[in-house]
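Table S5 (text form). Sequence records supplied for joint modeling of the four-component complex.
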Amino acid sequence: MAARDYGQYGGITRALELVGERWAMLIVRDLLVGPRRYGELAAGLHRIPSNILAARLKELQATGVIRRVPHSRVIVYELTPYGRELEPVVLALGAWGFKTLGDPRQEQVITPDSMTMDLRTAFRQQVAANLPPTAYAARLGPAELFIRVDGSALDVRRGDGTADLAFAAGADIRRLISGELTPHLAIATGVVEVLRGPGDLLERFASTFHLAV
Amino acid sequence: MAARDYGQYGGITRALELVGERWAMLIVRDLLVGPRRYGELAAGLHRIPSNILAARLKELQATGVIRRVPHSRVIVYELTPYGRELEPVVLALGAWGFKTLGDPRQEQVITPDSMTMDLRTAFRQQVAANLPPTAYAARLGPAELFIRVDGSALDVRRGDGTADLAFAAGADIRRLISGELTPHLAIATGVVEVLRGPGDLLERFASTFHLAV
DNA sequence: CCGAATCCATAACGATACTG
DNA sequence: CAGTATCGTTATGGATTCGG
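The corresponding structure-token record, covering 426 residues in total, follows.
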């Protein structure tokens, strides 16, 4: 791993030598959501060439960031404890990037894992702590997420479930999270479509997930 | 800048498109210490090729992370307000990398700016708030730093000054900051050499700057 | 089918030299 | 001092192929 180093001694250079290469941090992002198989990673990072994915997985293993775990018949990759400690880094990056996240370009896709991490980024723990437990079923572009907020705990997983509020939205859910759009306006303009449950709950959603730009 | 994108829509991909390329985050790191001239950046990142530095500076300007400011005769680069908001990202990266920072390799150098940011990473604001104002003059490898702690405020700058404690150390100051070495042992083993002032103050330094591994 | 390895064109990077 | 220009090397991207 000393091949592509910076010739400097310090915490930041060290970190960048471990996870600074192209795609590495996105692999970490997806693995922060949960263990993933090779094919799942390839699907979530749909533009990654398979040789690059294979190379990164090897490097991240060699440096102790991830682990390759054979599970009966399938192989999954998961973060080591040290790798999981990258969560603050990934969240900080996400919060920073979110601020200048415009509208999606034509070729940009939304993946369940990236959306999950963006929701974690926007999650306001101290606000949620004072709200009743709530479950949301959100269809965000192609991603179906089941979001449970209980006290200061957040759980996001793929798929559906019994939710207090079910809604559908596209990438412009961002406008709701940034506060650019009020929940009321988001519904009125069709940015958010309420599928089940009281639309008022979208206000709770918006105050739980908020990231000022 | 959409040339090298990831084809995904999300906060983290957005951030990586802006500052994810090689060397970019290190330029940000050094600019977090203060505005720098082209030559200063080149010196601090001594292994960066000048064409890469020039390219990164252009990209970071184009994306609104840094600004090119003509100052009478010289040109300096500085972070925009948006660029400065990368500080939490850089500190989180530094804290993570610090944990597996071993001993320096032969070719690795210590630069004043990287050392400054590492100190900021390790700074414990809430601990410092309960200590009397203290100034340290530290010679860390080739970097001469004048460190002032006043309440929860930290100021690190290059050069010397009237300090309560002056000391010299090498890269293995890391062992003191990680707690691997007690202040007493650090002095006894020669890891830290006290140049002026009461050596006891090194305990205050160690509790002010601490990052568990 | 999953988890890669291989091949090849292209783009980025790195070292050095060069210019206003 | 603040960059450009050039050119060889390396990494990336895309497609295809291989092995269990």
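Note: Residues 37-39, 42, 50-51, 53-54, 57, 74-75 of chain A lie near DNA strand C (CB under 10 Å from a C1').
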